[in-house]
Amino acid sequence: MTDPTHTGTSGDERVWTVLDLLKWTTDHFATKGVDTPRLDAELLLAHALGLRRLDLYLRYEEPVAAEARAHYRQLVVQRAGERMPVALLLGEKEFWSLPFKVTKNVLTPRPDTETLVEAALARLPDAERAYSVLDLGTGSGAIALALAHEKPLARITATDLSPLALEVARQNAEALGAGESVRFLEGDLFEPVRDELFDLIVSNPPYLARASAQALAPELAHEPEQALFGGDDGYAVLGRLAEQVRPMLEAGGWFLVELDPGQAATVVGWLEAAGLGEATILKDLAGRSRVVAVQNRSQPA
Ligand SMILES: C[S@@+](CC[C@H](N)C(=O)[O-])C[C@H]1O[C@@H](n2cnc3c(N)ncnc32)[C@H](O)[C@@H]1O
């Protein structure tokens, strides 16, 4: 079959409809090993046409003009050839039902991380209280801004080692109307907030093992290394967090950390050994151990 996204001067006058393009691209993506070929084709075509994805279903029989096909072709090539994630091609990802700008400088927020947000909200039960909250390694600002959206009184600080990520997080805060309510600070782990105490500390740190990088989905090559890898074994940042978190928590304050299911038991052990209370493992929607939660039950020094 001719490549319908091609808009060259071959004299190919055939009319390509929305449905033709979706069918062709779905097959093409499937051949190239893209996980969700039809969904990706729909999202990219809707983007090229300036439509919402659901609007495509009403326009299956409409022809697609050469200009839109040229834009679409570019997106298809980047998705299939370079394995660029759809969110990066669209420049946006929905998280906690909020739109987040994403660029190559931030991790694209994942649905798994909504488990962490939900667990965090459950630990901020008093609607009248101005809880102090820290999101360590905020990336796009996903966790901090989801919490700000739900808890407008909370005093939220979001930190990251990467100034480029913080720039995106600030833009997301502005766009979501939270520019005034979240404080963004740059630095390594707790260094930017060294003299403060928090009711809740949340973190989705880099936790993949660099040693297993070869086995990872090719899409991950488009995300910042600093957001993905926690050293050779995946534990570099988790270990430092477990070691340093206790003195940063108010008495009765909570620490919630996202991790790989295989890391949960080890991190529970570290947190308990650090003098915090009994740690609990929380599951994500797929039933995998995804978050470790622990409360500071140690006595103030
Ligand atoms: C897995 S991403 C999480 C991004 C965002 N919180 C989310 O859940 O989508 C980890 C983030 O931690 C940041 N980071 C890595 N090492 C750090 C460190 N030592 N101190 C502070 N932030 C760090 C990375 O730059 C990255 O933005």
Describe this structure in words.
By secondary structure, the protein is an alpha/beta fold. It folds into 2 domains: 18-82; 98-295, Vaccinia Virus protein VP39 (Rossmann fold, 3-Layer(aba) Sandwich). Helix content is 34%, strand content 17%. It is built from 10 helices and 9 strands. It has helices at residues 18-31, 37-49, 66-80, 86-90, 113-122, 142-150, 163-175, 225-228, 236-244, 264-273; strands spanning 92-95, 98-101, 132-136, 155-160, 182-186, 198-203, 249-258, 280-283, 289-295. The protein has a 7-stranded mixed β-sheet with strand order 5-4-3-6-7-9-8, with helices on both faces. Strands 1-2 form a two-stranded antiparallel sheet. Strand 1 (92-95) and strand 2 (98-101) form a beta hairpin. It is elongated, with a radius of gyration of 22 Å. The chain binds S-adenosylmethionine (SAM). The site of S-adenosylmethionine has 23 residues, from helix 6, strand 4 and helix 8. S-adenosylmethionine is lined by residues 107, 109, 113, 136-140, 142-143, 159-162, 165, 188-189, 204-206, 226-227, 237.
Distance between the termini: 73 Å
Number of helices: 10
Biggest sheet details:
7 strands, mixed
What characteristic shape results from the CA principal axes?
elongated
Small-molecule binders: S-adenosylmethionine
Q: How many runs of DSSP E, i.e. beta strands? A: 9
Output the structural class. alpha/beta
CATH architecture call of the largest domain: 3-Layer(aba) Sandwich
Strand content: 15-25%
Strand sequence of the main sheet, in spatial order? 5-4-3-6-7-9-8
What portion of residues is helical?
A: 25-40%
**Rounded to an integer, what's the Rg over CA atoms?**
22 Å
Instruction: Return the average pLDDT rounded to an integer.
Output: 95
What is the fold named in CATH at topology level of the largest domain?
A: Rossmann fold
The CATH class of the largest domain turns out to be Alpha Beta
Number of domains: 2
